[in-house]
Each structure stands twice: as C-alpha cells, then as structure tokens.
Amino acid sequence: MFEKMKRDSRTTVFLWLAVLLLVLMAACSSSNNENSTESLTNENERSSGEGEPNATGSDDPGVPEINLTYWTNLNNNVASSLQSLSEVEMYKEMEKDTNVKLQFQHPPAGQANQQFNLIMSSRDFADVMEGNWNQYAGGPTKAIEDGVLVPLNDLIEQHAPNFKKVLEDYPQVMGQISTTNGEIYAFPSINVGRYRTFSGNFIRQDWLDELGLNMPETIADWEQVLQTFKEEKGVEAPFSTNLFFLQNIPSFIEAYGVTHDFFVEDGEVRFGPIESGMKQALETMNKWYVEGWLDKDFATNDRKAIDAKLLNDQAGAVPGYIGGSMGSYYVAKADDPTFNLVAAPFPVYEKGEQPRFVPFNFEVSINGQAGITTANEHPVETVRWFDYFYGEEGHMLKNFGVEGVTYEIVDGYPTYTDLIMNNSNGYDIAQSMARYFRANYPTPGMDDDRYLEQYYTLPQQQDAMSVFSEHSDYSRAYRLPPVNHTVEESSELAQIMSDVKTYREEMLLKFIYGDESLDQFDAYVEQINRMGIGRALEMMQTAYDRYTSN
Amino acid sequence: MAEMHVAKAPAQKRWKALRKRNRIIRDFKINKYIYIMAVPVLLYYLVIHYIPMYGAVIAFKDFSPVKGVSGSPWVGWKHFSNFYDSYYFWRLIRNTFLINVYQLLFAFPAPIIFALMLNEISRQWFKRTVQTVTYLPHFISIIVVCGMLVDFLARDGFITHVLVWFGLEQTALLSKAEYFRTIYIASDIWQHIGWGSIIYLAALSGINPELYEASKVDGAGRFKQVVHVTIPGIMPMIVILLILKIGNMMELGYEKIILLYNPNTYETADVLASFIYRRGLESGSEYSYTTAIGLFQSMINFMLLVMANYISRRLNDTSLW
Known about the structure:
The complex is a heterodimer. By secondary structure, chain A is of the alpha/beta class. Chain A has helices spanning 2-48, 76-79, 89-97, 112-122, 139-145, 153-159, 161-169, 172-177, 205-210, 219-233, 243-248, 276-291, 303-311, 322-332, 379-387, 392-400, 418-421, 429-436, 449-455, 459-469, 472-476, 487-513, 521-530, 533-548, and strands at residues 66-71, 100-105, 128-131, 189-190, 199-204, 262-265, 268-271, 317-321, 341-344, 369-372, 407-410, 413-416, 445-446. Chain A has two domains: 57-194 and 363-447, D-Maltodextrin-Binding Protein, domain 2 (3-Layer(aba) Sandwich), CATH 3.40.190.10; 199-359 and 478-548, 3-Layer(aba) Sandwich (D-Maltodextrin-Binding Protein, domain 2). Chain A starts with a helix and ends with a helix. The mean pLDDT of chain B is 85.
C-alpha cells in the first residue's frame, strides 16, 4: 500500500517534470524551430557531400553541394525589405556560380550581442560567424585559444591567393586581423580608400553668412561664433552634443591635443583624461558651459534631442555623421530652402595647426569580421568562397552588384543605375543598395571609394567628405590602432578600465559643470593613478609595440 | 523492569513513527488533488529560485562561458576583496543604504498615514473616488513612469516649470546629483501610496467597533481614538510589513535607477544593483565579479532580516518566525 503510494507520487512528480520540460522546450525552440530542422537536413546533406571539394566556378553537376551555416546580424537597411541575406542578389549570384549553399542565421533585431554570447556559451556555433570578434570575452586571441575560431594563416597561404595579395599590398592589415600570436582570425572588411572619415561637426552656413562670420577654425573662432549665435540668434544651445558624441566625435577637447581615451604620441601610448592638455580643455568647456555656448543639457541629451534642437533652430552646430545625421537633416528640412548645414573642419587650438584627432577608420573595420568556427567541416571551401570577394570580380559584385542591372560602366566608372539611385518602389539609396549587394555596411571584402562618391548625393555631403578627410593621414600617427591583447592582459585591462572609465566620465562632467573646481584636477589624476592606470598604460604600450613591429 | 523499559522504547518509537507515516499517507490520499496542485508551486521555487543558486559558485571562480561553471578555475575570495578595495565600495554601500533609509522614513509611513486619513472620511463616494485615483499609478509600467519623469523633469518640463515658480533654478533636474534621491522617493510615494494603503485599510476594517465606542465613553476625541485604538489595531500589520521591507533593503528596484540615472548623478544614484548591471551586463562581462557583489548584497539582506525579526520579537511579540 505504502509502496504503491510512493510509486504513485513519484510518477506524479515525473509527470509534472515532463510537462514542465515540454513547456520549456516548446518555449525555447519556437524561435529556433526553423534553424534546427534546417541544420538537421544540413547534417544529412553534409555527410553525403563529402567528396572532392571544389568551391569556385563549377557548373559541373557531378560536384557535390556544400552547405554552410552563416551567422550574422541583419543590417537595418536589408531588414527593412528582406528577411534574410539569402534574398540579397549578391548571394544569389554566388550560389549560382559555386557549389556552396549558405544557410543564413540572423538574430532578432537588437539582440545580436546577446545571441552571440549565448551561442558562445552553448558552443553551438554556425560554420561561419560574422560580427565584431573583439566583443568575445577575452578578445579574438581567446576565441582561438578556446577553440571557437580556426586560425586561418595556413588556409589562406594555400587557398586564398586574392586575400594573400591584399595582405602583401597593404601590410598594415595584418596587424589588425591577427591575434597576439600572429594568427589570422577572420576575413575582414577592408577600406584602403581615400575616404576614411564619416563623422565630424556640422554648422549652419546660412547663419554664418547672415551674421557675417567666417567658418571657425580655432577655439577662439568658435568662441566668437557660438557667442554670436547665442546673442544674435537667441539660440538655447549654440553647440549641442551629448556624452556619446563628446567621446566619439572629436570637437573642442581634442583641439587641446588630448582625447577621452588612449592615444599615441611619438610612439608612446598616453591616456588623455590625465594629461595636462585635458585640464586646459576642461577650463574652456567649463567657461562655455557657464556662458551657455555649450548645450546645458548635454549630459542628458540623446540623439533625438540633438536632432530636435538643430531642426528647431535651437542649435547652430552639432556633431554627427555625413550619412545618418546630415542626410536626414536635409530630408527633414526639405521645405526650408535657406537651411544650409555644412561640415566644419575639426577645431584646432591655434591657426595653422593640423587637427591631431580625426575620427579615422583603420583599414580593418571592427565589424563585419567573418570567422570560421571549429564546427565548420569545409574550411578549405569556405576560405575559397571568401577569397573570391577580395579578387576583381568579387569586389565588383560586393560593391556594385550585377553589371547591366545595378550598375553600368560609364567611361570606365561603375555608375549605379536608377534601380539603385532612384528606385521606383520607394526604397532609398541605402535600402536599395542593401537589396542587391553589401557596399554600405561592413562586409568581408574591400570597400570602394567609387561607391561613396555616389552614395553621398548632396553637394554638402560630398564637400563634408573631403573636409573631414583632409587631415586623416596626419591624425593617423596619433590614433591608437586596433591592437590586440593577450588573454591575461585583456582581463586585467578590463578590470582596471571599467573603474577608471566610470570615474573619468563622472569627474569630467563635474569639471565642466563647475561642480568640482579645476584645482582638484591633480587629485583626480592621483585617483586615476591609484586605480592602476600605470599598469593599463604599460599593457597598452606592449600591445602597441607588438602591433607596430608586425 | 528497567530492561523491559529499554527494550520497549524503540518499539514504541517505531510504532509512533509508523502511525505518523500512515497519517501522512491517509492525508495524502484524501487530499490527493490539493497536493498535486501544490506541485507547480514547489517546482517553481525549485527551478526558479533554488537550482540557479548553484550558479552563485562562480563568485569564487574566474568564470568563462566556454569552460562552464564547473570547468572554471577556483580563485577563492579574490572577487570579494577586489570589491572591498574598489574605489566605489563605500559609495555604493552609502547610496544603497541611504536610498533605503529614506524610503523607510518617508515612503513606508506614507500609505499608513494615507490609510488613516481615508479612514476618517465618512462620505463613501468621495473615499472611493480618492482610492481609485490613487491606485491607478501603480498599474503604469515603470518604464513609462520613468519616461514621464524624464520629460517632466527636463529643463522645459512641466514639473520643472512649476518648481521654477517657487524660486528654483531652471535646469534639467535629473542631471543634478543632489535631487536624485528626492526624485526617486517622491515618485515612489506618488506611484504606490494608493496601492500600499489597501492592506492597511483592510486591517483597519478588522478593528472591533466596540473599542471606539468604549474610548468615546472614556472621553477620547478623534485624534485620541486614532492614537489609542486605530494605530495599535494595525500595529501587527505594520510590523510584519516593516520586517519584510527591511529584508529587501539592499535590493532596490534597479530598473528605476538605471532608467533615471546618468554619469552626472552616479554620485548619489549608483547603487549595488545598478553597479552589478553595468559591470556584468552592459559594458564588461565581469560575471564572477558581479556575482560576488550580488552574493555580498544577499548576505547583508539576510542579516538585516534576521536582525529585524529578532528585535521585533523581543519588542512586541510579532515576528515572521
């Protein structure tokens, strides 16, 4: 009797557990249902497909098909009209020409990082994973050490002639895509063109004209211009910005020869917030804040707030992007013919100086790095497939699409057709590009200047491109390149820097607001020293030396 | 005789145990469905609250997702001592503690006073209207409440304008560290005062009306009645809720904090939970470090709860256990 009861209750518990498990499984798999069935079929096809590999240019029906899973975030411009990269013309072309079939896996919008981390911790990798490998905890070096990524050096040596040539032609690329052990971890998005700067500060040219002012260049010029904006135009925030822009798009603090982060001077890595230049910069910023030349609400502004201030004539100058900010401002102000926003050169302290810090893209973009994971059973074919994009044909396909459809060669210059530039279905340029090829966001392959020249359609945008890029090369010497750390370094660095960065952010704000007197600057530097900035600088220097010796 | 007694005792015990077991079985048989209904609740606690506790061991390890919980190397108290040595340690403790103390001082008594006031209203329709109106904010999602706060407290926000009439400087109130706690507590009171008063109103209705009559006979006015009848009547309820509140002291609703703070107000706004969120999820993936802080916070909570319970039992015989 008792035994039976016990058995019964146990059965009940098991039953409930089973029900619970079922519910959990249903909940978990509902989002992945498609993928899991697909990967099952893949598995079958894969095992039958193990024969003589031949990845490129084969129409031979006897060549077995190779299936690869490809994980990457779906760019907004693609997502606005398509469900998956497999619908993009460029990949359809690739599928026609090769025996490699791609199965794309895209995370839900806004959850890319989360899903990336989840995949990493569950070790359920796709064959190819494209994204920012620096966000792997411990960096790319650790990703190889942990057995996530396959080092590509030998594979490239043997099977990637085009990419090998790129590495030979542009030796600086090597240091940006290899780990501290010199192992190449991904196929990167490379830009070796003339245009490397896409953000900066914009100013209302029509206001300058109206008030008889010249385009400001030095800090003193800017003071005069912002003051006049305030007094004559009565604007609330002559220069509007926010914390993100303040740290990421060089403006006035950078005119004092320092940044918010690490930079390089004469081969030595320095930390801007503790340099004496920062103290002078903060004095100026504090003055501007008190005078009301700098937006009083910059600490709480989001991007929308800045946009609103500029579009409502409450700000005369703002930082932003040539495409994303400037382009959209002109769309919003289409009914105002006097609105004339132009790029302002990066401010300098004294006339004749060159700006040291220009937001400069290094050859390799941190996004769009395609790594081959240890789950991939066809690394050779995968490497060949990627190598295609670094060659002439693949380059054209990636940047311009299909000749006769998305572009025509006019006088030797690939010119986008109306399908891209004036799409009759109402897609804007960025969206219609994204439907056919991957030129306008980081993608394994090489960027092309000729794409940018056509992408920025407004004269002010084309002008901005050359204004911002003017000093890119000069500023290169001062920018810290994308260095890699060893596994130990990277965790120690993370620990030190997260304390330092919070403190820096708070204190810089207090100095600008005047809540803390600048007499306290030395005490502030002392505190950052105590947090271990010396050790961090040492590690950055090591990494930098390693990078330059490459 | 003595021998017999010794021999008998275990048998008796066994028999007693058997009878007890039988009783449980019988009870189980009779109330089978009720027991089954309890299973989901037990499973809920097991799966959601107890099993994840296993994860807390990563506070003593250098956790890496690839190596897994069991594969990561042990590091002992490293993360705890790192936190203790951290520049932010005392500030985090201070902020967490102060916001809680202020909440205890202002937000906790607010619904009690409110309930007492409602209790004195004799017009039923008015009482009901006031109650309904004050309940409503409780049902607004915290993200919406914070969105409203950010807008109302901006430089040209509605609340800012009102305060400017009273001579306050026109500024974005949320960028001032000195106002953060006030904003946090005041909005908390606004949102929860009506809802929080329900339980006290229920307790109030349980007070024997004869007590009021007796006190009236003794010559007590309305105020005296409140002090000598009403408040003692709801005292056990107040004490229980106070103990529960103290038990949760260190774990603030961090959602509201992270929705309202910015680097400019970290000075007063950054609490343990928001620090954990920032370091563990937002910027770095310092899983072990933040787990250690979380564990530390839970330990303090636990100690506070035990202490409050003990004191309360000593003082007035009301306690959770």
